Amino acid sequence: MARILTSPVVTEAPWRDVFWIDGQNGGAVKLEQLDRQTFLLKSRIEYRGETGLEGKIDPAIIAHLKVFDPLPDGYETDLASVPGPTRWFLGAYGSHTPAVLFHDRLIPTPADLADMKDEYADRYMRFMLQALGVRWLKRWIMWTAVAMRTRWAAGGWKMLSVAAWAVIAVLGIATFIVGLATGNTALVIAAIVAPLPASLLWGGQFGAGLIAAATLPWFLPPTALAVLGYAVYVAIESGVGRFQKVQQRGTGTIAPEGI
Known about the structure:
single chain; alpha+beta; 7 strands
């Protein structure tokens, strides 16, 4: 049964002691929804943990990186850019939201941040996720995903290297399956060892290549199943839609469902 709240509900944000929102430890992040996927951040966020960049860039730059103040205009974001078929693993929002917002504003790297690189932004996000208590494998998979997206978006050699790695990964999985099916130990060993040299295609983020190779075999099946399930839904929706009157969105008129 629904009830009317007479006072605000006080909850403890999952980022308490890690992020200060508008000067409040673990405060609420203010987001205004602009359309289906775009939000406007209207909060000042401050990070109070390690960045993973200590000793790599100027401490003054690190201090600047720990504060994200988009006010008064706000900052447009789609939160975590998670493809629909992979949302069984990670949602577009959650305890990771502040870390994702910080990472978003650093990709591509702002020109006024000396010595800052996209790879550092990815590393910074991984350290924020660790401070938030995100488990080891999950945060490394998240780091791998953003590293792949960063390298692809960079274009040129970085994009080609990721594409080459993807081809090798698919061939490696196929080789492993064939080796198991035929009892060919040499093929199985080759498929297991292949990710080591292939990860070098990720450059300084070679660890992401190893994580991707290790997780891809079990990550793909549920993702493919999600794609298949959505395809079935679209087919049913399209089929049913042929027998229903077209409804103009925003007219305020809704046709009776019949049941």
